[in-house]
Design brief:
alpha+beta, 41% helix, eight-stranded mixed β-barrel, Sortase, Chain: A, two-stranded antiparallel ribbon
């Protein structure tokens, strides 16, 4: 019975081997469905398909990324704002906060700040304009006065040198004629011929002043101070003491003004008991009377003591005897520096002379009596309301 069972088993093994031999061999490793007769995908095939799907997905994502990058590039090259809107969400936008109403105080405060700002701008511009204008005016004054001095004085000076050289050659002078000084210091001998040079120069100056009067009808003379003061100017006179504070001698407006004679004085200076001549203290441009303040310096008086004033009728020569700072407000002070009315009193006049001599920044022993005529040069201090005055005594008149 055992043998009968072994034979059928061998037959089944043979059948299995025979079927296996009938299965076709292919490059694609797969199984065959025994029921349907169809091929079943193997694990390797499934891995291959999965890999292909992953590659497709990655390609799609890369395509989206490239598209976004191109969009961003386009935004950067074009309009960044519009490009950013493509990816903005509703959360990216916030509602505009409500505007709060400003109070009247805030409005007034803002208006005040704006007003102050523009006021400061206006002040700055106006100040700049005044500075530039003053610099221009000072330069203009320098040109005006240096030009007329060159025309009038230099011509006279050159002529003077020629005349003196001729006189010396003819042995008619013992010494050169000084520009200023008393008759006793002039260096002339008693021979009338010795006065030829002196008189001719004076006549020439009068002719020059007559020509200059065609430029200014208010011209009354010319003032020169020998030394370092640079005082060498035409002199004018008006109906008040204000006009020529702001106008040059030729009538052009200029803050340097002019050297001018007090309107109360006579042009014939020897007829005035007290003559006053005014001039500005200029810090730049033409100095006018600025250098008068140097009389408070030690030794300045010795080299700057003589003044010549030319008019149409005479040459008046003065010598400085006093200089000081003085207030210009105490009109009732008997020693008031600009006093003109002495009530015909010899006592008041002599008292006044002694008072102004005593105020001086330097001391002199120049004799002065009641018959003398006084000239005062007056200028401003600039640092206060006071004035600086220089008093002189008339020592010679040449007509």
């Amino acid at each position: 019975m055992a043998k009968k069972n072994k034979k059928p088993a061998a037959t089944e093994d043979a059948i299995t081997v025979s079927r296996a031999a009938d299965i076709p061999v292919t490059d694609d490793v797969s199984a065959v469905d025994p029921d349907a007769g169809q091929e079943v995908p193997s694990a390797a095939a499934e891995d291959t398909a999965a890999a292909e799907m992953t590659a497709d997905t990655q390609a799609a994502e890369d395509s989206d990324t490239d598209g976004l990058r191109r969009t961003q590039d386009a935004g950067e090259c074009g309009n960044v704002f519009l490009a950013s809107l493509e990816h903005a969400t509703a959360d990216d936008f916030a509602a505009e906060p409500p505007k709060s109403k400003k109070s009247i105080g805030e409005i007034a405060s803002n208006a005040a700040r704006i007003l102050v700002f523009w006021a400061a701008v206006a002040v700055f511009l106006l100040s700049g304009y005044h500075i530039v204008y003053k610099l221009y005016a000072y330069r203009q004054a320098e040109d005006i006065y240096s030009g007329v001095a060159d025309t009038i004085i230099n011509a006279t000076t050159n002529r003077r040198e020629d005349l003196i050289a001729t006189a010396l050659k003819n042995d008619r002078l013992q010494a050169l004629v000084p520009v200023n000084g008393t008759r006793e210091d002039s260096g002339f001998v008693d021979d009338p011929q010795d006065t030829v040079v002196y008189n001719e120069l004076f006549e020439m100056m009068k002719r020059q002043l007559a020509l200059l009067r065609n430029t200014s009808e208010d011209l009354v003379g010319w003032i020169i101070m020998e030394g370092d003061t640079e005082i060498n100017y035409p002199m004018v006179q008006y109906t008040d003491n204000d006009y020529y504070l702001h106008y040059a001698y030729d009538g052009t407006y200029n803050p340097a003004g002019s050297i001018f004679l007090d309107y109360r004085n006579e042009v014939a200076l020897s007829s005035n008991l007290h003559t006053i001549i005014y001039g500005h203290n200029m810090e730049s441009g033409s100095p006018m009377f600025a250098n008068l303040l140097r009389f408070h310096e030690d030794g300045f008086w010795e080299n700057n003591r003589y003044i010549s004033v030319y008019t149409a009728d005479a040459l008046y020569k003065y010598e400085v005897f006093s200089a000081y700072e003085s207030p210009a407000t105490n009109l009732r002070d008997p020693a008031f520096s600009w006093r003109m009315n002495f009530n015909q009193s010899i006592t008041e006049y002599t008292t006044w002379i002694e008072a102004i001599r005593a105020k001086s920044d330097f001391k002199t022993d120049i004799p002065i009596d009641v018959s003398d005529r006084i000239l005062t040069l007056s200028t401003c201090m600039n640092i206060n309301e006071n004035r600086y005055v220089v008093h002189c005594v008339l020592v010679e008149v040449v007509q």
